[in-house]
């Protein structure tokens, strides 16, 4: 498993500005393997500090 690369504030802001409403799919890789979640709402609460 490789370490996740940090995301810059500008990249996060650009990604969230282009996020259309609807279904959002969130994926990660955990100790048990790949994980996924489908959400109908997504909100970024802070850029400083970024929550991860």
From TrEMBL:
Keyword presence, Transmembrane: yes
TM helices/strands, residue ranges: 26-48
InterPro entries cross-referenced by the UniProt entry: Split_barrel_FMN-bd
Keyword line: Membrane, Transmembrane, Transmembrane helix
Protein name as it appears in the record: Flavin reductase
Taxonomic source organism: Azorhizophilus paspali (Azotobacter paspali)
């Amino acid at each position: 498993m490789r370490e996740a690369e940090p995301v810059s504030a500008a990249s996060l802001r650009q990604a969230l500005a282009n996020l259309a409403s609807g279904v959002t799919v969130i994926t990660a890789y955990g100790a048990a393997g790949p994980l996924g979640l489908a959400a109908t709402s997504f909100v970024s609460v802070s850029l400083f500090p970024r929550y991860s």
